[in-house]
Amino acid sequence: MPVVDVDPEELRYLTGHDEKDDEELKSDLFDLGLEFEGLTEDDEFQLEFAPDRLDRLSVEGVARSLRYHYGDDRGVYVPSTNSADWTIEVEDQPEERPYVTGAVVRGLDMSEEALESLIQLQEKLHATMGRKRAKGAIGVHDLTMLKGAAATEGEGKSITYTSADPDEATFVPLDADAEMTPNEVVASHETGQTYGDLVADFDRVPAIYDAIGLFSFPPVINGHRTEVSEDSRDLFIEMTGTDQWTIDRMCAIVCYALEARGGRVERVAVEYADDAPGEYAGRTLERPDFAVRTKTVTHDRIESILGVSLDEREVVDYAERAGLDATPTTGDDAAYEVEIPPYRVDVIHPLDLIDDIGRALGFNSLEPVYPDVSTVGGRHDRSRLEDAARDALVGLGFEDLLNFHMINEAENFERMNLSVPDDGDGSDAGTVGLDEPVTIQEPYSEDYTILRTWALPSIMMVLENNTHRSYPQDLAEIGLAAGLDDSENTGVAEHRTVAGALARTDASYEDAKARLQALADAFDTDLSTPSTTHPTFIDGRAAEVVLDGESVGVVGEIHPTVLVEHDLELPVAAFELRLDGLA
């Protein structure tokens, strides 16, 4: 989950509520779904929140939500924008990174706190929507240090987004005092080494020029000449990426944050050449994109989901307190056309609107109602089995874990010494963990792109993060695993999986087998362990897990390649099996 550092004094200043003490702020933030995780060394709040609310990645966004919560602001707000004085001319840009957007923000009072907030917002957007800059990268520049060329069409000034020879173009990058070529930046500059892989396969690299020369090498690093400081008052924001919608939404979030600091947003014209790659060839876009979207939600569904009776006036009121505008529609069925502000990238379904209305109403104020049903609830047999298995594992000395069910392909396969399965060719059928993964179509983060096919990678990630803690570490998890399966109605086969790992200086196959035997005995199942091979485990030190004659898993000693990949310096023995094998 995203965590943002927020100065409570800044929150009080930006909300206009100096009377709120820290405990009141924490309570109000919790009502909005932002959980207090602790304090930083500078006594700032560490707030964790749902990863879809990217407009809250800055103190300005959090303060905006609080002002709506307090009733100080209502409805959709769209900043006014001045006419475009600057143009981004797009020509000969790399096909691998064809899109650009931008904005100008003037009249800022760039205090130390405002600058730190802007930097944090930039980094958090890079890590989330920008997919670590691969899908979108943000450049913020001191406008006074730019010299615009004459725009090719109309009046005003222009800069150019194009491509450059990585061995010939030169500029002074941030945190440097000498001119360097893009290839030199990638080879020897710390930031260049971090993000150089993003342009490693480009024949010509992305580059942004003004009348003086190169001043930005996206998505890697900006130039020193246009560096933003506390003395900066006017900013030029440019963003490049592989998807126009993504960088436009990122730009909107940044502009709203700067506008909350007193900035005046000014439009920028983005002129794509007639032969530009992508869908906008020959078009001129006015940016930033502050278009307001609309969705329809019915009154019956609002009441059904929230479990309360509301009249039309109350729905409109709660929507406005959530930063939305709801207009009742005409017709037989009561419904609302709801306007959604540009910074709300998370609203994709009417249920998202109902959630906002519910938070404005106050989930804590809802009265519990006993269900009007004639049956008595009880635990599902699978749930009983899962609880019994968990109790048995804890009794065997394991520490119980609860990890995310989502992961990425590198963690699930490559770092476990497995190859990503081919498209269902069946060559890896039966190998634990090698199901074809369920892929998330539009993930918000590169860290969570698929549903995990087994749980052992999650445990190895915990061990990797726990190298500073004492050993032995005996960890276990019972959780969801999934893979594609055409025979299922949904196309996805899900199952509960049991995984355990012993990390200690004397961990061996026999230790893992002994724990597994005790688990099987607890459920009165017959265990046999014929030898097998599995890339995650050492050859000759791995076996199938066969319960009552059915192969349900694997047990063995983790391969040294996997240990090194996870920075582990002592042996690990582990097992994984299907939970239903214990039934």
TrEMBL record:
User: What GO terms describe the biological role, i.e. biological process, of this protein?
Assistant: phenylalanyl-tRNA aminoacylation
The record's HAMAP family line, in alphabetical order, gives:
Phe_tRNA_synth_beta2 (MF_00284)
Q: Which gene encodes it?
A: pheT
- The protein's enzyme class: ligase
**Residues where Mg(2+) binds:** D346, D352, D355, D356
Q: What is this protein called?
A: Phenylalanine--tRNA ligase beta subunit
GO MF: ATP binding; magnesium ion binding; phenylalanine-tRNA ligase activity; RNA binding
Q: Which Gene3D superfamilies match?
A: 3.30.56.10, Bira Bifunctional Protein, Domain 2, Phenylalanyl-trna Synthetase, Chain B, domain 3
Just give the chief location class.
cytoplasm
Q: Which cofactor does it need?
A: Mg(2+)
What is the organism of origin for this protein? Haloarcula salina
Could you tell me which InterPro entries the record lists for this protein? aa-tRNA-synth_II/BPL/LPL, B3/B4_tRNA-bd, DNA-bd_dom_put_sf, Phe-tRNA-ligase_IIc_bsu, Phe-tRNA-synth_IIc_bsu_arc_euk, Phe-tRNA_synthase-like_B3/B4, Phe_tRNA_ligase_beta2_arc, PheRS_beta_core
The reply on keyword Metal-binding is: yes
